Amino acid sequence: MAPKAPTTAAAPSKRSAAAAAHANGRGDGARQKRAKLHAARNIPVQPAEAALRDGELDLQAFVAAHEFEIKSLEQSMATSKAVGTSRAFQKVPRGLRRRTASHNPKRVARRLRARARREMAEDKTPVVEPRRRKPRTTRARIRAETAKRLAVLAARKRRRQQPKQAEAAGRDGQEPADADAAAARDAGVVGRKPRPKIRRNQLNEPPRPPAKFRKRQINKTWLPTHTWHAKRAHMTEPKNPLWRFAIPITPNDKIYRPTHRSQGERGTMVWDTSYMSTIGLYGRVAGIERVLRGLGISHDACWADKGRRWRMGTRTWSGMLSRETKGGGPHRRLVCPATVLWNPEPRDGRDGGASGRTAQRQVYLRVHPSAFLELFNELLRLTRMEKPHTYIEDLRFEIGSVELTGPASTEALLAVLTPYATDDVPKPRHAALFESLEGLTNPATLPANSLLSFSVQDPRLRYPPRRREFPGTLEAQMALLHTMAKWPAEEGLEPYGLFDRDARHRASCLPSQRSINRRRGQAAAGSLLRPTRADPPIPVVLVASRSASSTQTQGTWTLLAPWQCILPIWYGLVHVPLVSGLNPRFGGMNEAMQVAFERGLPWFPGDFTATDAGAEWELQRRRERRREWDRRPKSKRVAWAAVDLGAGRRGEVGDGLACDFELLFGLPRRREEKEEEEEQGTLHRPLTGRWR
Q1: From-to residues of CATH 3.30.70.1400 in the chain
Q2: Residue 669 pLDDT > 70, yes or no?
Q3: Which helix (H) or strand (E) is 283 found in, with range?
Q4: Helices (H) and strands (E) in the chain, counts
Q5: How confident is the model at residue 169 (pLDDT cuts 50, 70, 90)?
Q6: Which of 248, 599, 664, 683 could form a disulfide with 233 if both were Cys (CB 3.0 to 4.6 A apart)?
Q7: How far is CA 77 from CA 36, 41, 297, 312, 637, in A?
Q8: What is the pLDDT of residues 282-323, one digit of tens each?
Q9: How many CB atoms lie within 10 A of CB 426?
Q10: What does the angle CA 459 – CA 593 – CA 576 come to, to the nearest 5 degrees?
């Protein structure tokens, strides 16, 4: 008799089973994996009654039953071993897996390459042949042969010079110098590099890159962390840089949801924002005030008693800058948002050494690179009208920056930045104030636009960074609340080292990584290196900013440091083990736009179309959308002329490939754009029936 079909209650459908698994907090994949493991480790057997016939032992059936059991045991052993194993390329974190790793052993971690080669040899997996080994074109073959000949000639030249070098080293009077040089190399002493020239009231040249990277930076400049980002992120096209910089667009990993979690829930996001431009303004207080008022900073909150802390140097100002129009009317043209910070006066100046209006002061303006030239020219015009003379400096390649946001941003900074203090140099007040922020989870809770400045050690001396213990005691939390309420940043205020050109130059003369590795090898295992005379202090400035619309969102830390010191700091930041068990995630330009959108903040220059930089950004996006639309075949294009608007109306209103501000505000179109759009058929009649 055939068995009855299972009922619905006994055998639920796949949809109901998946819903039940989702309700229990487990996905369907975990249930299937558990069933697969159970089936692989289960040994099927036959009952003993199968070997009996009418109460007598059937020898042939008995042997067949044992044969079945033995085969089942062998098969179960093989399947249970195979089901629990994974390939070498599956042993790396999911975010680091690559599709080509299954055919290229070099795509996996070094510790797994031997295992990957063995697995590929066992199952006869075809191994990818590297492109660099065999040139595929005639031009590549000629270049490879030329490089081989040049290597042979260089080795021959080195062999010819070896006897001369040995003879020169053996002469009298040369050995002490060689011994001193070797001792200096062992101690990590570096030669004094020439201080870069900074011309007043003129644009400065970017730093001269190494010879092997010089041709790649003819039309653009690399960020200090470019070589790190180039392996892990999508960069701007080599021939189409953004604002003359090679900027990371977005990481290679899936980052949209991790960005949302890191910037608001747990972890932290970091960006290398060294492309942001810095302009130095120098002169008397009265002249600087007139120049800043000419840029639109004329609020009473800045120049009255409310702005005392800003002019003292313990706060920053952030807002929109503007300039006069050509006609000189009452209306002003918006330029860009900027951050302005003052350098504190020396103590003798505050004690009455010079009058407040005639004292020499320094101001930094941080602006976006898309509006740098416009602001620089406006500053140049304003400073030339000042008597006595006020001047500006282009510090774009002198000062770099890193931005951090998220609950663990303060934790990451505390793990990497160690205040520089020796027997001769005591710890600054701002450094002690920074270390007292242990346990802070939101920079927005600090005073708005607060600023800290001190010198830190080379982060490579304490690499890799250690995990910071979260202070969970009530006393520590009360101490943190007391510090935030009092905020004694004005006590013992000294001029900031980042404004000192010599201090920035000394910080850029860091010892080589080889010398640090040599010192680490001579020290005890696990011990931290102590700074020596060869390790200069690195001046940094920390700015805590927050959204003006709400204090509930996460604040942002902006770290300013010398351009050459950004890379060592970056290496430490991205490898900090956080208390949450994660590491800081880095982002690109797309992630910066995403965070601004989620927080309800405008992003410059995309959301500032009333400025010249914003208008240029919109026109560039239009050209990109046009090229992308033209590349598609006609059957795959969006037919804007055939869009059904209802009520018998057809055709898109305005330009379907742009944010059509010309249509919204009745602005005249550019003649060349209008002719091009009419040819392509993407500009159509608006609802009013008139052409704009």
Answers
A1: 277-394
A2: yes
A3: strand 277-284
A4: 23, 21
A5: low
A6: 248
A7: 14, 8, 78, 77, 57
A8: 999 999 999 999 999 998 889 988 899 999 999 999 999 999
A9: 10
A10: 20
Is the pLDDT reported for residue 338 higher than 70? yes
6-20, 63-77, 423-437, range with the lowest pLDDT: 6-20
* Cβ contact 92:108 at 8 Å: yes
* CATH fit for domain 277-394, picks 3.30.70.1400, 3.40.50.720, 3.40.50.300, 3.40.140.20: 3.30.70.1400
**Residue range 342-370, pLDDT digits in tens:** 999 987 665 555 555 677 899 999 999 99
> Hunting for tokens 């602006």 — which residue is that?
367
CA distance 470 to 411: 9
Please give the Cα distance from 139 to 151 (Å, whole number).
Answer: 18
The contacts of residue 297 (CB under 8 Å, 6+ apart) are: 317, 319, 321, 340
Bridge partners (DSSP) listed for residue 419: 456
Read off the pTM. 0.76
Integer angstrom CA distances of residue 678 from 119, 477, 667, 685: 60, 66, 17, 11
Residue 17 pLDDT more than 60?
no
How many CA atoms lie less than 13 Å away from 560 in the CB half-sphere? 27
The C-alpha atoms of residue 219 and residue 241 are separated, in whole angstroms, by 8
In whole angstroms, give the CA distance from residue 573 to residue 566: 10
The helix (run of H) or strand (run of E) holding residue 219 is none
The CA dihedral of 677, 678, 684, 689, to the nearest 10 degrees, is: 130
104-129 confidence digits (pLDDT tens): 888 788 888 898 888 888 888 888 76
Name the token pair of 426.
């005591």
Q: Is the backbone peptide bond immediately before 210 cis, with ω within 30 degrees of 0?
A: no
pLDDT at 82 (0 to 100):
63
User: With 70 as the cut, is the pLDDT of residue 385 above it?
Assistant: yes
Maximal C-alpha separation, the chain: 123
pLDDT in the model for residue 25: 45
In 521-653 the beta strands, taken as DSSP E runs, fall at 538-545, 556-562, 585-586, 644-646, 649-650
Both tokens of 580, joined, read 């949450």
